[in-house]
Amino acid sequence: MGVVGRNCSYILFMLHQHPSNRRAIQQVHCQLLVRNDLRLLRVWNFILRQYALCVFPQEAVSLFKQQCSQVGFFFDSFTYSFLIKASANLTQFGLGKQVHCLSNKAGFHDNGYVQTALVDMYMKCGCLVDAQKVFDEMPKRNSVTWNALLTGFIRWGDLVSAQSVFDRMPGKNVVSWTGLLDGYTRMNRFHEAFSLFQRMFLFQGIRPSEVTLLAIFPAIWNLRDVGFCQLVHAYGEKSGYNASDVRVMNCLLDAYAKCGSIGCALRVFEEILDERKNLVTWTSIISGFAMHGMAEEASKSFRKMQSTGLTPNRVTFLSVINACSHGGLVDEGLEFFKKMVNEYAIIPDIKHYGSLIDMLGRAGRLEEAEKIAKEIPDDIGNVVVWRVLLGACSFHGNVEMGERVTSKIMKMEKEYGGDYILLSNIFAGVGRYADSERVRRRMDRKNAAKVTGLSFF
DNA sequence: TTAGGGTTAG
After folding, report:
1. Whereabouts are the PPR repeats (predicted)?
2. What's the whole-number average pLDDT of chain A?
3. What domains lie within chain A, and their CATH numbers?
4. Which regions of A39-160 does DSSP assign to beta strands (E)?
5. Confidence at A35, pLDDT banded by 50, 70, 90
6. Which residues of chain A between 217 and 276 are close to nucleic strand B, CB under 7 A?
7. DSSP conformation letters of A235-277
8. Which of A85, A181, A387, A451 has the least C-beta neighbours within 10 A?
């Protein structure tokens, strides 16, 4: 730009001195064209990037088509990178393939940025073979290319390929370690995730990033490791992530709650400055209270959150209804449900219904629970909520409803033997041993074996 | 101005 500018000034000077010099005019024209194109391309690319990265990747494609119609317009590696990114964000494999061909034709088949963006795009679109092919054909790869391949395999649950990429890649960095570690936590292999974390930090001396911390949290709370919570807490404090990234703090408070330390969770919550608390922060603490049966605190937090101007979402409502359910605040739980539907126009999903039925069932308000179960739209209807109701019938010894609910469950799913056993237990509980036996025999005839208890809530 | 990493429902 500086050189072009200086050349132009010089030629303009010459032009003033020799107005009839045709060659000088041509040179200026040429330079201005070049300069204009470059400037224009930068502007186009900038807009393309904004579209590609934001919520309107389709706009990036329209813009590119518009550019294509301009005669003599050329594109650089930035243009193609952004466009490939847009295709990835749209998960449009066909579009990505077209851009791939165009970029190759334009001579970017050996450009590291463009080719890496292609690996990433194919991976995001689920075209693992195409991604691998682009990767294999690249003359030179860097750590970003390797990481794009590695994280792509993780995205599709192919831990074996990801591990193989990790083992082969030179210059593993924090993204590579975090990617693999995340893969292990996703596959519920928490001990291996922990061991990777330790190898990375202690033996390789690579400092975990905020993303590493976010990735290791599921391992922490699945293994109920409060000690590790404290370690991450201290590290987050020292590294500055606690102050800079509210997501880390949200995860930390959630992990403390899930590990059974609601006191520590509350301390983390209070450590977060009020202006930094977001909807997830509030939802996490409400959910924490729910886990510990602290319905009053959950309800109070909900109202406090509303007073800060934040709008609750379906997760917030589920958490507060769960809290009411576990803490026995039945009417308040019903009020929250009504508020969610009427004031916030949130359509309840099966988990909201399940929580509500569980809450009413625990309180022995079985008729209301049954009424709600019947109101669940067929398209989201789930046999699990009826089993929750059956469990409540069993607990409260309601034979009539127990029979009704069982036949409903039988209609929905005939193979589950556990329901026969529950009904049989209901009969036995009120002394109707003949009926109890009859149900057991029916179960045997249908050869439906009882499976281990499983909850979806 | 370009490439890589999952905060809340237990």
Report:
1. 142-176, 245-275, 278-312, 313-343, 349-379
2. 85
3. 1-67+77-129 (no CATH), 141-216 (1.25.40), 224-347 (1.25.40.10), 352-457 (1.25.40.10)
4. none
5. low
6. 217-218, 246-247, 250-251, 254, 258
7. HHHHHTHHHH-HHHHHHHHHHHHHTT-HHHHHHHHHHS-GGG-
8. A451
